[in-house]
Amino acid sequence: MLYLAWGSLFLVLAEIGERMPTLTANGLRFGLAALLLALLLTLTRRPSGLGVPARERTAAVVVGAGMIAGMTVPVVLALRHLPSGTVALLAASVPMWVELIRLLEGERRSRRTLAGAALGLLGLCLLLAPGASGAQDASPAEAVLWSAVVVLGSGAWALFAWVPTRVATPSNPLVMATYTVAGASLGMTLAGVLAGERLSVADLTHFSAGTWLAFGYLVLIPTVLAYAAYAWLLSVASLSLVSTFAYVNPVVAVALAWLVLDQSPTRAVVLGGALVLAGVGFIVRGESEAPSVDAVPPAVLSVKEN
Predict the structure, then answer these.
(1) Read out DSSP for 269-301?
(2) What pLDDT, on the 0 to 100 scale, is given for residue 182?
(3) Confidence band (pLDDT; 50, 70, 90) for 62?
């Protein structure tokens, strides 16, 4: 589900960006999603389910602001200059950042996992080459700049996804998802304010039914359902394995951009996509052979977005 939900995210974000102030609209998106997650938690458990210790709640909000907003802001800004499929491929650098962090921590990684990360990195190098992105509305230098911004945003995702392994966060996946998405809303809204974006009540009445349908899809599928699923996955699997969604999402995004927007991928995009797919295969095999202690314990959940 994560592959399809977040794979389609880039196309929908690109479409929304042409009709709404993107940063502020995403702040609203995450805010509504947090309310829906809180409602779901209330219906399935009890209102006091959100009543976790203040330090755990604060940590979850900070993780959401740094991880989700830290990656979503670069993505939505880059989509103004680069094709959605290319942006999705660049966002696939998350697993490489994860492996770098774990190596810096002194963890021993399997050869398959390292080989997968290396293949993915090679694919990203192809995408970062001048002229490789296929961007038509940006100069080669601008394309490289915005490509690098997306890669750095992926680093923010990986870094803040690692933070909960060192600090206490809510142990229940749905509670964790609620607070992290709320943190993302705060981060995106602040970014919109700093960028000078405005979204008034009067503006809301001017959007078409198609725009609202796309916005509703963003709230429900890639946000509410996907982030709840991501939080649960991180409670039962390793961060490296769960992060492989960032490898497969681009393939979905490139296919949708080609079919819907007629954005034909360049040779570099095709080759880079093939390499990252090979990389995810190696990482999945490497993680499946890793000791069970490599899994993230339930007490240190995190939520990952685009």
Answers:
(1) HHHHHHHHHHHHHHHHHHHHTS-GGGSPPGGG-
(2) 95
(3) very high
| Intra-chain end-to-end CA distance of the chain, in Å | 14
Could you tell me which of 158, 177, 153 has the C-alpha nearest to residue 243?
A: 158
Number of domains, the chain: 1
54 is a domain residue: yes
Residue 306 resides in a domain:
no
User: Who has greater pLDDT, 181 or 233?
Assistant: 181
CA gyration radius for the chain? 18
More reliable by pLDDT, 296 or 185: 185
By residue range, what is the domain housing residue 212? Answer: 2-300
Retrieve residue 49's tokens: 């389910």
The closest alpha carbon to 215, from 24, 87, 65, belongs to 24
Q: pTM above the 0.85 mark? A: no
Q: Is residue 305 part of a domain?
A: no
